[in-house]
Amino acid sequence: QFNAAGPDVYNFQWVGNPHLHAKIQKGEIVLDVGSGCGIDSTIACDATGPEGIVVGIDISENETKHALKRAREQNLNAHFMVADMENMAKKIPSNSIDVIISNGAFCLAPNKEKAFRELFRVLKPGGRISICTTTTQEEKLTPGVSWPLCMKMFIPKDDVKPLVEKVGFTEVLVDDSDSEMSMEIPDEVWEESNPSRRSKVHVGGPE
């Protein structure tokens, strides 16, 4: 998969590996939700082969343009378009997708039930969905902490299965077997590191 990911693999921003459970087959129609630069879509194209097609959607116009450019350069059977996972009615027909993958996009969906309902709508009967998303361990974040907006939208892990079953999905598996990410850097690591090199991606202003 690393070799199949294409020239943007080193720019990959990810939560996990949706391909592990998606088990994409030759000739299938795949929807990549929150496709970004198109790296998971490129891996999916390798799995479907030229007989299948991969559709990537993202709310970033710049990233969809980039992904489409890369797909054309690599002669991939992939298409990318700007779309919101909570409202795909004018973009993706009902009962049209064999497999849905998503890697990190659900962390940022404001209305997760609405988003899951849209994905259920576009899946063919018997279709599969494999999503990697950051969750919180408890229902509420620590009070008094000024959490970044993205983290405020994380769903509690225990809420995921009941939510997707309510929408209509069956045979739901929540796999946290390879979840070692922590939101807090251990003190001993922090003390031994160079704070000036710390990534600022989740650090806001004084508020």
Indicate the proportion of strand residues: 15-25%
**Spatial sequence of strands, sheet with the most strands:** 3-2-1-4-5
- What share of the residues lie within helices? 25-40%
Mean pLDDT: 87
Cα-to-Cα separation, first versus last residue: 41 Å
Write down the Rg: 18 Å
Our count of helices gives 7
Q: Which geometry do the CA atoms define?
A: globular
Write up what this structure looks like.
With 207 residues, this protein is α/β, with parallel strands linked by helices. 29% of the residues lie in helices and 18% in strands. It has seven helices and seven strands, in the order H-E-H-E-H-E-E-H-E-E-H-E-H-H. The strands form two sheets. The protein has a five-stranded parallel sheet with strand order 3-2-1-4-5. It has a two-stranded parallel ribbon with strand order 6-7. Strand 2, helix 3 (61-73) and strand 3 form a beta-alpha-beta unit. It starts with 18 loop residues before the first helix and ends in a 15-residue tail after the last helix.
In brief:
With 207 residues, the chain is α/β, with parallel strands linked by helices.
